[in-house]
Amino acid sequence: MAGYGTNRATLISGNTNRVELAVIGEGQACWSPEGVPLFWQQGSNACVLIEAFTGKVRRGFSLNPGEKVAQGNMPILAVTPDASLVAAALVGTTGERVVVWNTEDGRLLGESEQTVRALSFSPDGSLLAMGDEFGRTTVFRTKPFALVANLAPGKRPNAINCLAFGEDRVVPRAGTNDPKRWVLAVGNSGAEIVIWDLAKRLPRSFCLGSDYNIQSVVFSPDGLSLASAGRGPVRVWDLMSGLQLLQIYDAGGSDTPALAYDSTGDRLAVGSTAASSSSFVGLVALEQHRGIQRLRGLNFNIRKVWFSPNSRLLAALSDDWSLAVWETDSGRLRQLFEVAGELADNAGGAFNAAGTTFGFSAGHEARLYDLQSGLALGKWNLPQGYADEVQFDAQNRLLLVRKEVSPNNPNSWSWILY
After folding, report:
1. CA nearest to 260, candidates 11, 59, 17, 72
2. What is the pLDDT confidence band of residue 281, given thresholds at 50, 70 and 90?
């Protein structure tokens, strides 16, 4: 965790071990592929990537004469988790710009002449988000550097303080060619968080109820919840509904620009400055459940539920035609599909014996999904029907029985087996 002012950066290991590092001042923390902690920060007439243990500059990027890193609630910098790409918002005598570099060879990937208050890369470095003082967000592809989305302010045009990408767990019904899909959390000075569906360019949810402002946001590793902080307690939100799940009063309390989950989602690192009260650096242990496990990912009433033959998987269909599949032991969301139909309580579904595929039927269509990749292995158009029942037979064939209108007599209904 980077320092603040003249304070040194801190390495937290285990649950309680804290070690001060050689790097002083604000910046962005990351880890090299070989496991070396690095910090991305402003140096003298340059932006530098520094090795945390030694203070050695691994790569420097010269700035134009008179340029410096722009300042929001912290220096406006961004770095990918593996330190492969870095970005900086710069202000100088001739204007303001955002610059993106490749750290391996020092190459300039692109720049945009605009004024921003927050920057964030997607975890894979493919996208860079920028937020401005009027609540607007722009998203750029990094290779090649190009604008891909303009996102309007949320409920009000409040200045954006922080941004974070998270994995989009929803599998679109229309399919996608993108191997990775992302949602974007935008926190602003009006205590509002907007979760954007980047594929549809629409808000997926709003997280409301914080105090004062939002200064940091971070997605949990499972992509189903979001932690946020500002001036007040740390809060954890349900991603799909925007509902608050938890307030952590013992962490934060002052301005809190630093939040980070560990790889399991069971620990949350928090860093606060002394802007309004005392500074704080801590590690919070999170318990996901205490005997009764809540399966998250759906946002509307549940109409149908199906267990796999060995009860290790559970599927559920909600009224907004979202189909979720979880692992019952861990509660991990395996897949979240967009499906369609007419009446959710008439839909049919079933797992195969091995729990590797799921058959689903409703309305005018039946599908067979691969539960590892999320791909649709088969699609079949059907006449309008109701009361669908799906099963796999002993030869692993997908069977469907449903009630359909007779093609020769619209007043006559028949049970049809496929």
Report:
1. 11
2. confident
Q: For residue 5, is it left (φ>0), alpha (ψ between -120 and 50) or beta?
A: left
Residue 101 exposure: Cα atoms within 13 Å on the Cβ side: 21
Tell me which residue of 349, 347, 293, 295 sits closest to 320, measured CA to CA: 347
Q: Cβ distance 96 to 89 under 8 Å?
A: yes
The token duo for 325 is 């599949």
Q: Confirm whether pTM is higher than 0.70.
A: yes
DSSP string, 93-108: TTEEEEEEEETTT--E
As given in the structure block, the two tokens for residue 39 are 């910090």
Within 13 Å of residue 413, how many CA atoms lie on the same side as its CB? 9
pLDDT one-digit tens code per residue, 116-130: 999 999 999 999 999
pLDDT digits (tens, 9 = 90+) for 10-65: 777 766 677 777 777 788 889 999 999 999 998 888 999 999 888 899 999 999 99
- The encoded tokens of residue 24 equal 């002083």
